[in-house]
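Board work, copied verbatim: Adenylate kinase
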Amino acid sequence: MRLIFLGPPGAGKGTQAKLLTERYGIPQLSTGDMLRAAVAQATEVGKRAKAVMDAGQLVSDEIVNEIVSDRIDQPDCAKGFILDGYPRTVPQAIALGKMLEGKGLKLDAVIELKVDEAALVKRMENRVAETIAAGGTVRSDDNPEAFKRRLTEYREKTAPLSEHYAGTGQLRTVDGMAEVNTVTAEIEKILA
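↓ predict structure ↓
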């Protein structure tokens, strides 16, 4: 099972990916984690990524695509994987499609969690209040202004992926505003 989750920040992608990872025993592949691992392991592509990051620049699509390709080749991905935070752009999605095709693989589904943005802001504010009440630490980007910037960036850069994957016939949408268990049940129906 090879999946991509789409949706704005706070839509519940991480929650759903974690549940599916536990249920199906497939890894959740986060670009941030993959990048850090490649750098830590000093792989060839990891060394190139480190040089770029040390220069204070953003890692190119080419390097990110190569890191994802290397990670997908690992034994724990044999039964499948869930991509988290990748692809972020249509060019990355096109590169991913070619990469998978070259490996004789294909995506089983691209699942978009549809959400109301105003409700997302409220959800984020509630999460912050609950974290504070429990004595936890609040993420630095969990404030209304930063969250709205993340939503804007999502709309501009990542939202076009929906149209791309709709065009390939792989996009499935789920109401991300429903209760967690309801969302999971809808995703399970898609995967059945």
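The chain has a mean pLDDT of 90.
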